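Hi all, long-time lurker, first post. I run a small reading group and we've been trying to get comfortable going from sequence to structure in the token notation. Rather than ask abstract questions, I figured I'd post a concrete chain and ask someone more experienced to write out its structure so we can walk through it together at our next meeting. Sequence below, copied exactly:
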Amino acid sequence: MSENPASTRILNAAVIVAALGYFVDIYDLLLFGFVRVKSLQDLGFQGQALTDTGISLLNWQMAGMLLGGLLWGVLGDKKGRVRVLYFSIFLYSVANILNGFAQTATEYAIFRFLAGIGLAGELGAGITLVSEILPKEKRGYGTMLVASIGLSGALLAWVVDQFFPWRTCYFVGGGLGLLLLLLRISVSESGMFREVQQSKHISRGNFLSLFTDWNRFNRFVRCLLIGFPTWYVVGVLITLAPEFGRAKGLEGITGGHAIAACYTGLILGDIASGLLSQYLRSRLKVMWIFLTLDTLAVAYYLAGGFSTAASFYFAHFLLGISVGFWVIFVTIGAEQFGTNLRATVATSVPNFARGMLVPIGASFKWLKSPAGTGDIVTAAWIVGAVCIAIAFAALAGMKETFHEDLNYVETI
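-- Answer (accepted) --
Happy to help. Here is the structure in token form:
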């Protein structure tokens, strides 16, 4: 089935909705990091209780994202990419607004869990839809636009946090999501999915089938592992920027400024990696280049001596550029599998990769403790080397998908 000619334009309705939805998604995903301290202080938490409650809320959000990554992916293959796209935007928008009304830690946890479920679905559904609608020579541009526009939501969260109370910040995020839905931009389902949907003999959204065949399992795991360095950088080096700053003799480093610097670099990195993959006509070559850049950026961050806060924030900017392969990472996941499993993989892979922050963080926490190395920088060296080595090893056996025709199904 041929697609509507209008849908083959790079800037079509699917790309616009996916990009704007991801924009609000990233706004909400990172907003908690910006408002965590002042929101919990406003709810009466201080000292260690503030830190412990913040970690607990983040874990509830992550639990929601892991559940949502599985739920939305399966539904995306069973019910359609467009339905998941809109329902996920609706859920995290409502959860955002409810967050603004939270009066207790329990309410806050429930709303972060619901937000996590909603946040898990938008990117995978959007990337899958864009990949299937655009012709193969253009789909890299489409996914690049979704990621680069979406990631700029982090900068809006940073700006809004500077000027508004924490409850208003959540209302802004929820309002933006609902406004996107109220615009009622008409998005058509991809022809590939409609063809598969009409067949009663094709199994769709069977998550367990990823583990019953070695070839599928191997592809799935490799798609997951190449994302390890991203969440090591964001979850450890960026999140703990104040601690790393003090280890290097710098005081006054804030997590918010570090996140803003990193995500500015991420936006530029995603644009660069997307354009480079189109120029080189290869996803894998770009992954090799950016993993190498990430190795150099991490080494500079950990080994460098920084005399000013500005120079240290610049190192965060370079880290952001180096993990700007996020768009390629998600696109590869969508391109590695047939239409009947594509949304399942494209949605679960980025969320499971985010979930890997739990073992990464636990390993780092132990290594920097007196029972480990007792030093935060040494611990970061060890964990970073392992994460990057795993990503390189996973990439070494992957199949190039730039020229892949996505109109096929997995035999289950």
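A couple of things your group might point at:
The chain has a mean pLDDT of 88.
The chain has two domains: 7-190, 210-412.
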